[in-house]
Protein 1
Amino acid sequence: MFKYFEPNKIFLITSKAPKYVLLLFMIILSIGLTEALVLSPEDYKQSHSVRIMYVHVPAAWISLGIFSSITILSVIGYIFKIRNFFLISKSLAPSGLVFNVIALVTGSIWGKPTWGKWWAWDARITSMLILVFFYIMYLVAWRIYENNDKVFKITLIITILGIVNVPIIKYSVDWWNTLHQPASINILSKSSIHVSMLFPLLIMTAAFALFSLLIFLMKYNTELIKIKNKGLDRL
Amino acid sequence: MINEALLMNGYGLYVWSAFGFTLVSFASLYIITKIQYTKEKNKFISKFGTLNSERAAFAKSQSINKEILSNTSSI
């Protein structure tokens, strides 16, 4: 089964896909921005500041999703000795980091009109900040040990330590009395968000997911060409 | 109407700066990634050009190399 994950086979698809993904991203983002900034209603309590949710929440979701994916791929890659899984993880990390920073900065901007301050050492916000450090450690480890087999073990350890933080981020608003509001969207039970706000939120999430896919494909292609460059040196 | 959309009951500065920061981050990441991709690709093409005909033929027989060379405007 793992033969389908060979870089040669994957490159045939990944080298052609970015232009289509970029086009689709632009279309979905345009619809999402129109919905988020113009068509969606204002909140009865937070007024127009609620619109920040349409960038803050998808960014947070995707940064958590990417870190979880990186961990799963690293563990499987290490157990089954599939180096390509590490390459995929490495290519996912930059967009994960950027989404994490976007979630923190837009959360801070949203905090000012809602809580009256830019920052609070609240459990949810602090654990998201810790995740940024794990992303940075992961990327720095690749930069330092790129040409060393140690990199697989080091990045695996960083992701395993970092993944402990992910359920803390998710459940921090339930476990502790935090300034951050509890989740409004639940997959297993009824969501407290109205459909007029849920729809733009889902569209923006799709746009953000497409953007992370686009960056992943471009990074992955770059990494493969880097490997091929080394291969040409050995010819 | 336009003023209303920009000011958003006094929340415009917060909303526009959050969306602006997001879009600038997207553009920066895209540009940086594209520059890195182009740099590696150009390096590959110039290295390929320095190979002698026998090595070039061998390198070209690998499908991935062929793909990189043929796909100069893939992104």
Protein 2
Amino acid sequence: MNNFLSLTHIIVEIATVICLAAISVSFILLLFRIVSGPTNADRAVALDSMGMNMMGIAALMAILIPTTKLNDVILLIGILLFIGTLAVAKYLEKGVIIDRNLD
Amino acid sequence: MSNLAVLPIIIPLIAGIILAFFPKKLALVRTLTKVFIIGNLAVAGFSAWHVFNHGSIILETGDWAAPYGIIIVADQLSVLLVLTTNIMAAACAFYAPYSLPDRKERYYFYTFFFFLITGVSGAFLTGDIFNLFVFFEVLLMASYALIVLGGDKVQLRESVKYVFINLFSSMLFVTAVGFLYGTVGTVNMAQIAQRVQEVDQQGILTAIGILLFFVFAVKAALFPLYYWMPKSYAVPNPVISALFGALLTKVGIYSIIRVFSLIFIHRIDLTHEVFIWIAGLSMIFGVIGALSTNNIKLIIAYNIIPAIGFILWGIGVFNQEAVSGAIYYLIHDMIIKASLFLLVGTIAYAAGTSDLRKFSGLIHYYPFLGWLLFVSGFVLAGIPPFSGFIGKLLLLKGSLADEKVAVVIIALLSSLLILYSIMKIFIRGFWGEKDDTFEPKPVKGRTAPVVALLALSVFLGIGAEFIYPSVESISRYLLDPANYINAVLEG
Amino acid sequence: MYKPNDLIFRTTTSLIAFILLGFSIYLLLAGHNSPGGGFIGGLMTSAAIILMYMAYGSDILRKILPVNYRMLIPTGLLIAAGTGIGSFLFQQPFLSHTYNHFHLPVFGDLELATAMLFDFGVYFTVLGVTVTIILSIAEDR
């Protein structure tokens, strides 16, 4: 039983490290997309996915350390990301973020 | 009564917060400002009296013991400077309603004014080098707001320079504090001083000392680093210039005095020798700047640089008389610079321009202003029996005792030129052709604070016998770091 | 005039804004010993308010939330500074804080610290500053 637990422990650890590496690669690709992105919409989407990757990294770190305190942080990143993406999307569509009167 | 030490920081903070609730009700705001500043002056005076009679007040905030918690140290030097700060702040508060347009006063001027006083008093009173950084930031934030207040074009151009140079030096400051913490493992100034004597690798400490000196020299506008200062101090309103000229650079030089008399005294032959040369060069270049311009506000702003040079000279020589002279000169200069900035602001308002080539013969319309300028020129240059003379005399005696003759000659020569640069305003602006089309404006409310400051400054000279003993005891206290260390760590 | 179809946005906003406000209160109260505190709580609340501004426009929001955010800044500062000065009343050094355990009817045993009051001050200051900055940039016409 004990052997089995330590085996799963090792598997989880290895899997986490592999995931971290994969996310880092995706970060680099997304950075390229942000810099080169032909349109602003591409850049917005790339920024959004970058934020998702950030949440992923925080979650993986929470597994590695291990701690539960990072859960709030993940939620926080998600919310700020949501609002940021909304603002960018609204800007791209209308040119204004906070209008005076919508009706 | 240990909370007495923190009151000069707290009262302006609370005052600034309260005034931020109703910036638009100008009459109420002005009255409250005067009430608060007089109250703060009284508290500062009382704490000065208390410290001079019963010894330093050490406040461990939050009840955390000395090397671990943040401490506020009200020793004789700090309370004297806090008192001087409050005196000149009171003069500025009484001058401000006449000088600032109502529009600018409504942009939270008085709030930032009080936050500036908070930062300055905090920087004087703190006993912790990281908190020195924090209070520097407090006063810089307030000064950024004050320098762009109103948003005129020329103000914005100069303030960009000001903000960038100060951000850069703040960055270096926090880096230097980080190095210091890494080397000696504490940020409490008394404990740093204690450990600096024990560390065997003193080379790195000297390097950190020079880095800190660089930071403070940027803030104090010393020789190679003064280029940002004169113009950005000359463009804002006279009240704001007076606050900046009399307080911000003096906080920088105060930090040099504190740090280089308490902490970095292990290589006096290296660091303090350099100070003397920087001081001499500051005098020369500052005076050249003051002579080169025809803008009366710029003349006064350039005159800050040699004054800072004189104070640094005292630290460089570093004996009893020279340090007394430096402290005397520091206090004298805070008061006279504030009064000169306010006076020149008044003259520029009265003449309608600050360009010396565009007005003359003002003495026919404003004889009182003219003679005020005449007297303050004498005070600034140090003609006996005024207060500048006492400070310079002590500095001269101290450095002649150490056989540093070259800097003495530079200092005497530059004093003469300082006198000339002020007299230039008097000769060109007040003498000369009377302009018959000129319409005089009322300046009564503006002259009262100037007269008060000038009277105090004259008293500093004539009543030197009352003040000199306390200055001498301060310098004796500064020259032996054990006093400070024992007061903080064992008191 | 061009009219966007904001239906989804508005529907989700009415839901998400309240989740955000609740989360911000949680963060504010969670502080002191775990991640959170007045600063991040204030940021979250201002995020919720900005979200509502984006969805409904500033005219409507000014009717719904008639708050002068500029007034929140000195209020928060006063609370924060007041917790420091409060220690004067008990003959303690400036900024002294204390805590105790309380039995409250719903929450049970609770540890309450005066440092939380300081966090409330920070919360209001951050909320006021952030919303003031964003609105004054956005409404620059």
